[in-house]
Amino acid sequence: MFKGALFDLDGVIADTSVYHFQAWKKLIQDNFQQDLPSQLEEQTKGVSRADSLQRILDYLQIEVDTAKFQQLMQQKNEYYLQLLQTLTPDNILPGIKELLRELQQQKVKLALASASLNAPVILEKLQLSDYFAAIADPVAVKQGKPAPDIFLAAAGGINVTPQDCVAFEDSIAGIQAINQAQAFSVGIGSSVELAAADLLFAQTKELNLAQIETSYQQ
Ligand code: B16
Ligand code: MG
């Protein structure tokens, strides 16, 4: 059995990735009266708040000064936090709780590798904090996903080498980050977008520990 499991949060543990995009859409509508196309959802998944905003502004060909950029980031987070107000353990994606329990029974150490500054609060609301021995701090890492830094930090937090870890992601940037960290990447989502994953499941409810272990050993 592998020794560590590294988890992305939004889109893997909880269904919060849709809330991020709803908040971005409202921000752009309120500030620039433009409708954000759905293709930007994929391009901002797993990407830090600042990098996401930059990608969105680049796409819309809008330039803002530093003060406006900061204000937009803050406003986006306020919209996102409003959407999180009703978050409960019911927002845990299907199959995740069972997987966390099984990993715990197998003595696999768990760490969180989320780009989100809101991750600790979300884990609390989902009542999952106790499963995780470490939460990598996105502020403390030099580069966000697709750089490997947050996964290296998460593996370091549980004292397991990345090669002995399996890591779960729903985003293109996240799978790239895991592969660069040289952990075993498990993608959750579309085979088109996540083609680079070592192993792929269409949905969290299909996650299967025996299959992951077999594939990891090969
Ligand atoms: P915050 P993950 C990522 O979380 C989200 O996928 C991405 O949409 C978001 O921009 C990023 O966190 C930062 O989140 O604004 O809450 O700090 O998928 O890495 O768990
Ligand atoms: Mg994600």
TrEMBL record:
The keyword Oxidoreductase does not apply. The record marks S114, K145 as: Important for catalytic activity and assists the phosphoryl transfer reaction to Asp8 by balancing charge and orienting the reacting groups. Mg(2+) binds at D8, D10, E169, D170. GO terms for molecular function: beta-phosphoglucomutase activity; magnesium ion binding. Keywords: Isomerase, Magnesium, Metal-binding. Pfam families: Hydrolase. The active site is at D8 (nucleophile), D10 (proton donor/acceptor). InterPro entries: B-phosphoglucomutase_hydrolase, Beta-PGM, HAD-like_sf, HAD-SF_hydro_IA, HAD_sf, PGP-like_dom2. Coiled coil: none annotated. Substrate binds at D8, L9, D10, W24, S52, K76, S114, A115, S116, L117, N118, K145. One of its GO terms (biological process) is carbohydrate metabolic process. It comes from the Bacteria. The keyword Iron-sulfur does not apply. Its EC number is 5.4.2.6. Binds 2 magnesium ions per subunit. PANTHER family: 2-DEOXYGLUCOSE-6-PHOSPHATE PHOSPHATASE 2, PSEUDOURIDINE-5'-PHOSPHATASE. Belongs to the HAD-like hydrolase superfamily. CbbY/CbbZ/Gph/YieH family. This is Beta-phosphoglucomutase. The gene is pgmB.
